[in-house]
Amino acid sequence: MTQHFQRPGDPLFTQRTPRVVAASKLHRRRDREKAGRFLAEGPQAVREALAAGAVRDIFVTEDGRRRHRDLLHGASSAHFSVVTDDAMAALADTVTPQGVIAVCDLRDVPLDAALASRPKLVAVAVEIRDPGNAGTILRTADAAGATAVVFAGDAVDPYNPKCVRASAGSLFHLDVVRAPDATAALAALRGAGLRTLATSGYGATDLDDLLDDGSLAQPTAWLFGSEAHGLPDELRDAADAAVRVPIHGRAESLNLAAAAAVCLYASARAQRSR
Amino acid sequence: MTQHFQRPGDPLFTQRTPRVVAASKLHRRRDREKAGRFLAEGPQAVREALAAGAVRDIFVTEDGRRRHRDLLHGASSAHFSVVTDDAMAALADTVTPQGVIAVCDLRDVPLDAALASRPKLVAVAVEIRDPGNAGTILRTADAAGATAVVFAGDAVDPYNPKCVRASAGSLFHLDVVRAPDATAALAALRGAGLRTLATSGYGATDLDDLLDDGSLAQPTAWLFGSEAHGLPDELRDAADAAVRVPIHGRAESLNLAAAAAVCLYASARAQRSR
């Protein structure tokens, strides 16, 4: 059971209470790095954060305390504090907060640690900048059974509130890796026995051919580039194959989230086929 | 070749010029319905709109006129007018407009007309409200080779600027249908020989089973519900099957765009397999 941080009869925390002020700063990447903490907003994210043992503090409004009683009751390790609606508005990234938000420890692991468990399916997002896309890739990779997502190169911060929200809890399910040197990451992935497949609209290999020849059953790391620029040429060339998702109609391409879903689920199916 | 609407030496159109004022109103759904027109912004959308013969007017900035010379040169049926940067800011939905925007005729067709060509693959978006999701479904459906997208029930306006942008031109490639009565649309789809498959996280049928038994090769209409509420129960029950995309990890579900990509590409592959 969670412990109430305030004493009975204490006033609600306001947006000027030092603990709230400190937590509100976690909207900024620099402050997240400095504190080693980030914010997870809403009951779903807080539930997954609690299950992952990542929570340091929980803030709830009086209304949120009533609405999310089970959530607060089910957790054993975290304190919670009741805050004013104004304080919640300062803490929250959404326009209509759901009354509960948690301060969590950053949880990325080194690439070596993620590879030590010999993953069979890994998603690598290279230089992607849009937090919504980053969160969607976490969610889709989790659903497809991938066990690690690598944010490589100069990428969006996976602890950006919009990424946390778009991941719908999956940020707490997977090994999250930040690898500023994408080329070194590619070598490490290959060294761990993963076949590296670079997605590209102009890739020489059609995804359907990989499904036909059965080779997607191998342990695989899928590399996805940014929506605006795709993968850097040198990474695409360094990968084991450059793969295109077939375009059957007249669309120029798929968007990043759709391409990632098609590729990761192609691997998921191939790895589970008899 | 496009014709310049202003005469040589005429001043640039400003945000107070009646033609610009009238076009700016097309940001509002009500005004789009009244005028029967909508806005397509940026060179990619304008190019596809011109190719589809949908363009009535083009507005360009002086800079846009230089940058998009080929685009303006290649079109035969549309007038263009040079506008001030302020006028472009009033016309554009984006913060950094790309200097060209077109007024287009609404282009949805009745469901009967879309079904007359006996489509093999149709996407049906039911009561979806997010314009970005709507545009992504258009783009993904186009890429997967679907030839029609039906917006059923109380759905977002496909001519919303954010939807037009997210569709990346695909709005101009497909038969777009608006069908306020979703139940009647389901009956019409089935009447046209399409197997109707309702996506649901709790569907009784696993997508992999449909891939295994080969039945996805049949002409298929995929029904997708809203991100927040899924498909209405009565529609899910009325469809030929309720299908779940398998979740291999710990994610609760896939988001709408990812689920649509996986399902539509599963059909695309099955319909093309030998």
UniProtKB/TrEMBL annotation, chains A, B:
InterPro entries attached to this UniProt entry: Alpha/beta_knot_MTases, MRM3-like_sub_bind, Ribosomal_eL30-like_sf, rRNA_Methyltransferase, SpoU_MeTrfase, SpoU_subst-bd, tRNA_m1G_MTases_N
Gene3D superfamilies recorded: 3.30.1330.30, 3.40.1280.10
Top-rank taxon: Bacteria
SMART domains, per the entry: SpoU_sub_bind
GO BP field: methylation; RNA processing
Alphabetical keyword list: Methyltransferase, Transferase
UniProt GO molecular function: RNA binding; RNA methyltransferase activity
The keyword Methyltransferase is assigned to this record: yes
Residue intervals of the RNA 2-O ribose methyltransferase substrate binding domain: 39-110
CC annotations in GO: cytoplasm
Similarity comment: family membership: Belongs to the class IV-like SAM-binding methyltransferase superfamily. RNA methyltransferase TrmH family.
The protein's name: RNA methyltransferase
Lineage: Bacteria, Bacillati, Actinomycetota, Actinomycetes, Micromonosporales
Primary gene name: tsnR
